[in-house]
């Protein structure tokens, strides 16, 4: 058994989302969004290097020793499956292990809005799941793939970095390919997938212009494409897509978005009222004629008003979702206040008014 497995077993037993190992500090666990050290000595460079060498392949070790960060999945004998990132910092090396549950989540178990399941009935177009790093995008995408896998007979090709949840084919055939292991890039992965008779293509990260271009082509040519971006609102997602491509392609990109983008689901993880876990709160934009016209006429700043009044079709602003979750006593009002764009409606709900001044200072 690798020595690092002891920390991973402890983290899994505590129900944490991440285990942090870094030179100069003790191992730490992220519990309900908070980072907490465990009772252990500060890790030395030699000690941590030894732990990590035990779980890296020869190829991974060579890449890391050449100066590159590493992303890979690791199955511990004691603590389950993890997504691993190994990096260098000023004082030495570090690693983060993200826990991956053995059971693939369902849309219902994540309490995601029902409209997300309805979006999956589409046969062509693009659905984007966006949010900051660590906001649960991969988990939501896994639940979406699981829903398709359980309910429809499809060929689903998933491109991931690294592979996290393992999907066993049910009604659908699910083919999971890993960046750097099975495909040299996401763009090449999408290009190859289009020759493999796909119905659904999941693009784990649309990180460059070529990947975005290939994903758009797939969505326009009869495939359902699921993808992610590191953006924190529907408006910023649209702007990122347009700005990612050369100026001469921007009109074409706006045309694609207005016609083939089905929805943008932007989420953040907010602590529950009992402080034991976090749940995803979503802003949802569903493409319609009015939003399409705003995109084509460079008036994306007006999209939030469409989301605010589009409740009947399943749309909502993040603030609306936060208020509803507070009303249902599902999340901590103090946390909702922290994440809200317009904080005034939340002030009467907050238990600790001292944070008003703190957040105002930060905003300034």
Could you please describe the fold and organization of this structure?
- With 364 residues, the protein is of the alpha/beta class.
- Helix content is 36%, strand content 24%.
- It has 14 helices and 13 strands.
- The chain has helices at residues 5-14, 45-53, 58-65, 115-119, 137-151, 186-193, 209-220, 234-244, 250-260, 289-296, 303-308, 318-327, 333-339, 354-363; strands at residues 18-22, 28-31, 34-37, 70-76, 80-89, 92-100, 125-130, 155-160, 173-178, 200-203, 224-229, 261-271, 278-286.
- A 7-stranded mixed sheet has the order 9-8-10-11-7-12-13, sandwiched between helices. A 6-stranded antiparallel sheet has the order 3-2-1-6-5-4, with helices on one face.
- The radius of gyration is 21 Å and the shape is globular.
- The termini are far apart.
- The model has no long low-confidence stretch (mean pLDDT 93).
In short:
The chain has 364 residues and is α/β, with parallel strands linked by helices. It has 14 helices and 13 strands.
């Amino acid at each position: 058994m690798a020595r690092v497995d002891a920390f991973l077993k402890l983290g899994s037993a505590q129900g944490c989302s991440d285990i942090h190992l870094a030179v100069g500090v003790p191992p730490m666990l992220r519990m309900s969004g908070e980072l907490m050290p465990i009772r252990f000595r500060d890790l030395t460079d030699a000690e941590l290097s030894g732990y990590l060498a035990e779980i890296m392949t020869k190829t991974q070790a060579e890449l890391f020793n050449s100066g590159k960060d590493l992303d890979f999945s690791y199955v511990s004998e004691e603590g389950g499956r993890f997504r691993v990132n190994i990096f260098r910092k000023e004082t030495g090396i570090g690693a983060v292990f993200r826990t991956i549950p053995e059971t693939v989540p369902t849309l219902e178990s994540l309490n995601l809005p029902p409209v997300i399941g309805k979006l999956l009935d589409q046969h062509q177009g693009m659905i984007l799941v966006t949010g900051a790093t660590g906001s649960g995008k991969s988990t939501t995408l896994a639940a979406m793939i699981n829903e398709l896998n359980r309910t429809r007979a499809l060929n689903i090709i998933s491109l991931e970095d690294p592979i996290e949840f393992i999907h066993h084919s049910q009604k659908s055939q699910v083919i999971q390919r890993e960046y750097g292991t099975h495909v040299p890039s996401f763009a090449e992965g999408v290009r190859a997938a289009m020759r493999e008779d796909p119905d659904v293509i999941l693009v784990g990260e649309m990180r460059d212009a070529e990947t975005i271009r290939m994903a758009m082509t797939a969505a326009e040519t009869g495939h359902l494409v699921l993808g992610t971006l590191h953006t924190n609102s529907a408006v910023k997602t649209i702007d990122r897509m347009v700005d990612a491509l050369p100026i001469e392609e921007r009109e074409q990109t706006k045309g694609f978005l207005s016609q083939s983008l089905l929805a943008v689901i932007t989420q953040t993880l907010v602590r529950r009222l009992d402080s034991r876990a976090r749940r995803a709160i979503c802003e949802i934009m569903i493409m319609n004629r009015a939003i399409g016209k705003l995109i084509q006429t460079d008036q994306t700043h007006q999209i939030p008003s469409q989301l605010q009044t589009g409740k009947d079709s399943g749309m909502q602003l993040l603030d609306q979702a936060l208020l509803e979750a507070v009303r249902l006593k599902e999340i901590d009002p103090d946390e909702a206040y922290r994440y809200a764009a317009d904080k005034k409606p939340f002030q009467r709900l907050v238990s600790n008014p001292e944070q008003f001044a703190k957040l105002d200072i930060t905003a300034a």
